[in-house]
Amino acid sequence: MATNWSRRTFLATGSGALAATAVPSGTAAASVGSAAVAPAVSGLAGVEPDIELAKLWWPNPRNVWTPIGWKDHLFRFNVTYNGSVIGAPSPLARKIKEFEKESNPNDDKHYEKDRLQLDMTPWGGNAFSRQDPDDPTPRMPDLYPGHFYVYREDQGLYGRGRQSWADHPTPVLQTEWTFSEAGLVLRQSVFAHAMNGADAVTGEESLFAWIRLEVVAADARLVKPNRDYGFAIRVCRAYYTQELPYNWQDGIVLTGFPELAPFTYTRWKKDLSANGMTGFSMWQPRGPQLGVLAMNGAPAPEFLDPKVAGKNIYEIAARLKPEVGSRVDILQCMRPVHETNEFNPEINLGYDGALADSNRYWSRKPATAATVSTPEKYVNDLVTRNIQFSEVVACKVPGKTYSTFLTGSMGYDVLWSTPTSMTSHMFLSLLGHHDTVAKHLDLYLGNQGKKTPKGELYPSHLGYYSTPEEVKAVDWLPDHGAVMMSVATHALMTGDQAFIDKWLPSLLLACDWIEMACKLTGHGGVVGLPPAAEASDEEISVQSIWATAWIYKGLATTIRLLKRLNHARVPALTALAADYRAKASTGLDAIGRVSPKWRHPDGSDYPIYGHNYFGPAGNFGEAMRLDAGAMVMVWAGLLPASDERMVKYCDYFRVGPNAKLWNGGSRKHPLDAPILEHEISSFEPIYSWNIFHSWQLGNRARFLEGMYSLAAGGVSPQTYIPFEHRGGMSASLGTHATIFTLMRLAVVDDQLSETDLNLLRLCPMAWLTTDQDTVFDKMATVYGPVSLKFRRTGSTQLTLTWTATWRTKPERLLVHAPPGFTTLIINGTTYAVPAEGYVVVPI
User: N or C: which end of the chain has fewer CB within 10 A?
Assistant: First the structure.
């Protein structure tokens, strides 16, 4: 089994088919020119999107799992959409499939052997699950033989379970099963608690999942008092993972591997009581790993031996009285723990005590943290929960002094630095979580200069940023630019002189590396740009637009910081950047001359640009042209969105031949002919660079369609957890960062101009109500934190108050009037909206 699975290798090995009910926006457009404005919604011209409309475009994704854990802890529990709870201690797991193979049979930590999965099936007789009338004990059906797609074969309960977050500071994930024919609603609630509620120090401290199974609604007319209700629970070793290759329409999907389910050694039970509840603890040779408690006087939970001799797969019958409040509490330990020192204190703390302790932990907030509150609760919760996920999908690295963000949980528990960097510079940095960002950058400082890019010409250089070997997945050339972008953004957003003093020599070395790379010749690509190296998961040496763009973005952001510092190298680096832009532009023309053409609705033919300046196309097909191709050049600053090449290339993915192949809303495999579906990428939504084109152009209709489409279609609308592509590889962070950056740019924009601060330029109408303020408080900007509060105060009147703590004042502060507003009241002063649509406010 190979160890470093490439993310897109999953996709490249399979093809897909079928399902998703959204029509590509703009498909029916007769002509799309640079000045044209598409309808806000295909078929609903003139209707501005909000989150409720966007949710109608996108059905719930399949194969969702959500990490439940503790900040910077090495391990996470993962709860799947059907309520299975997976405790799988495999730090920095590089093996995706073959969990049964011990990486080190002599390892006394037993990471593979300790994997524990609980499968939950609601139980209530023939009313809503199969039950043998001669054996009323709740039992799980046998595991399906062979490898199986979980979504298709999980008892049919995927249509009944619905997930949400409880109203607590702690991430408490609720899964509810509504059985109207039986008059019951059953709920599973899960949250994590670390020993003593303390911060992670090593990342390997004891970690627990508290699970509550309860009745939350009961109709006495329908429930049957003599019937057993509750949950049948399978207790086994973790056997859900992702299969390679896989050809289902969802791409990378949750797959059951029954051969992994049996424990490697016997489990047994001991009687247990705590807090007026009784039940049992489940043991293995190194200690207890599970506690199950029911209220005194309620049906006792049972620990059932394996149904098949020799199969160490156990079951729990957790019975519930059919009345509101009936419950069973379960304590799941990530690994076996010491009974006296760890298990007993935690079980005696109880579900409610552990939740209270966790609420204190999750209520802590840095003084610099921003607050976002809009009339759309979905938007607010998406931001709040993804701040938490960002620190849960991160870890202390064993044997090292640093922490790292991870690319995902349960599958991508390693680090792809480029997409994962977006969690810093496009999310947490903008939200004022500065200490968290700084802490998770340190690994790059210690690793600078220790690797060279995987390309033939690159010499060793002290300035090259790369990912430490202990955590890296695949080395990408754009990682260098991504790290520069993260470091320079943090410095600009904080003005932290100690951080700047620490990192400035490193950033200057990184600039030296770019200068060196651009001088290399004899490589067959565009001279003046960094030559070919491995730039993506295609793992081939190419001179890619993708790497070129990220490296430029890192350089340009660093130059912006150096200008702020009045650094002597600004003129030389500015000249380097100008030459770099020119070479990237002429290189794109060279690609266009040899690219296939497509017929635009305007009657002319335009290039379908490849994604590499030089080198083979790779194995991922045209999907790479969408996500890692020419459209990224606008976000990077290499080309303006008004450039005709950019306008027509976006049009290609909106109204080109691929749109005709999309077939009216079927669910496709991610590697099918790619399009922009409701303005987001059909491959990996995180890389919907076209929305940044619409932002720059001020194309409100397309911008809001894309922003809301990402917010509804790039995450689970139930748990807000991002995924890599729809229906596959959940809990892959990054898309949340794109979403929030767009939301922030709609309201607080310090990127459109290096001298101006623009407010409300693309603010959604949904955030302008008469009964609730929209608040963006302490939003980090390059000028200092800015706070806004605004609402509609008349049919055409908007009232806004703002404050700022300037480190450097912008030259102008522009407050834009949303469509239809003729009067702005800004900090008590009334302005009539001029023809240009914005007011320049004195600062």
Answer: N
Measured CA to CA, the distance from residue 50 to residue 48 in angstroms comes to 7
Residue 837, Cβ density class (10 Å: 0-12 exposed, 13-18 middle, ≥19 buried) = middle
Classify the phi-psi angles of 298: left when phi > 0, otherwise alpha if psi is within -120 to 50, otherwise beta: beta
**Lateral strand order in the sheet of 533-534:** 533-534, 541-544, 612-614
Q: Nearest to residue 464, comparing CAs of 476, 456, 473? A: 476
How many CB atoms are closer than 10 A to CB 323?
A: 13
Q: d(Cα 343, Cα 297) in Å, to the nearest integer?
A: 24
DSSP code for 425: I
Say what the pTM is: 0.92
3 three-state secondary structure: coil
65-69, 86-90, 465-469: lowest mean pLDDT where? 86-90
Q: What phi and psi, each to the nearest 5 degrees, are found at residue 213? A: -110, 125
Closest CA to 458 of 445, 477, 443, 472: 477
Intra-chain end-to-end CA distance of the chain, in Å: 62
Residue 195 φ then ψ, to 5°: -50, 125
Q: In the prediction, which pLDDT does 91 show?
A: 54
pLDDT in tens, 267-290: 999 999 999 999 999 999 999 999
Q: Find, among 673, 698, 691, 693, the residue nearest to 683 by Cα.
A: 673
How big is the chain by its Cα radius of gyration, in Å?
27
Query: For residues 785 and 803, what is the distance between their CA atoms, to the nearest angstrom?
Result: 9
The tokens for 835 are 């023809």
Q: Which residue has the tokens 């990486």?
A: 103
Cβ proximity of 312 and 305 under 8 Å: no
Interval 563-581: pLDDT, tens: 999 999 999 999 999 999 9
Give the single-character DSSP code of 630: T
Q: Which three-class secondary structure state does DSSP give residue 719?
A: coil
Which residue bears the tokens 């702020």? 564
Asked if residues 247 and 337 have their Cβ atoms less than 8 Å apart, the reply is no
Residue 101 makes CB contacts below 8 A (sequence gap 6+) with 1, 95, 112
| Confidence band of 41 (pLDDT split at 50, 70, 90) | very low
Strands 533-534 and 277-284: unpaired
Starting at the edge strand found earlier in the chain, the sheet holding 812-816 runs: 748-749, 756-759, 812-816, 838-841
Q: For the beta carbon of residue 57, count every other beta carbon within 10 angstroms.
A: 23
Locate tokens 């532009």: which residue?
585
- The torsion of the CA quartet 35, 38, 39, 41, rounded to 10 degrees, works out to -150
Residue owning tokens 């966790």:
358
Q: Which residue has the tokens 């149904």?
A: 307
Q: How many C-beta neighbours within 10 Å does residue 360 have?
A: 12
Q: What is the pLDDT of residues 606-645, one digit of tens each?
A: 999 999 999 998 888 899 999 999 999 999 999 999 999 9
Region at 129 (left for phi over 0; alpha for psi -120 to 50; beta for the rest): beta
User: What does each C-alpha distance from 455 to 269, 517, 541, 744, 786 come to in angstroms?
Assistant: 57, 11, 6, 37, 44
Among 778, 647, 704, smallest CA distance to 32 is for 647
